[in-house]
Structure formats: structure tokens, C-alpha cells
Specification:
Blueprint lengths: L1 E2 L6 E2 L65 H16 L4
Antiparallel strand pairs: 1-2
Length: 96
């Protein structure tokens, strides 16, 4: 299942996503780095693919040939794991 990272709406797997495709729910661009399965904040250029040119605005539509819509669950597991890690870090330093 694919979701829009902006509004968490489910994106149909039958939908063809091009440069001008927007989310039917919120109207944000779907062909953007933040909606791509290769997007990774910890990677070089925030992308796990070898990209020749960095996309500076990760939330705007782009023409990246490596784009593939994300395949994530509606619940933000990345956000919850980030929060868990932060809690553990605070506990480690006695800030909690």
C-alpha cells in the first residue's frame, strides 16, 4: 500500500504517477522525494539511489528517473521509532 506523506491518504496502486500528478486528497505533488521509496534522510543527497543531481526541495515535484512511490503503512513507523530513540537517549543522559 502506498500513502501520501503529506496527508496519510491511501494512494491507489493502479494510479500512474507522473510529474504533474497530485494527491486526490490534499493536492500535494506525489512525484516528490518525500513520497519515494528511496528517500532516506541519512543517505547522501537524502536518496538511496545513485542520483547525479541533488533535488534541493524534497517536497516539490521533480523529474527523477529513479522515482518509485513509497510502500509504507498508514501508521508512521519511522516517526514512532524516532520518538522511541529520542526517549532512550534522554533516559541515557537522565533528562527524563
Amino acid at each position: 500500500m502506498s500513502i501520501c506523506v503529506h496527508c496519510n491518504a491511501e494512494i491507489s496502486s493502479s494510479m500512474t504517477i507522473g510529474h504533474a500528478t497530485v494527491c486526490p486528497s490534499c493536492g500535494e505533488s506525489l512525484k516528490s522525494c518525500v513520497n519515494c521509496r528511496f528517500y532516506d534522510e541519512g543517505a547522501y543527497h537524502q536518496c538511496r539511489e545513485a542520483v547525479e543531481e541533488e533535488v534541493t526541495d524534497k517536497k516539490r515535484a521533480n523529474f527523477c528517473p529513479s522515482f518509485m512511490i513509497n510502500q509504507t503503512e498508514k501508521t508512521s513507523s519511522a516517526q514512532s521509532s524516532k520518538e522511541d530513540a529520542l526517549k532512550k537517549l534522554k533516559a541515557l543522559f537522565g533528562e527524563e
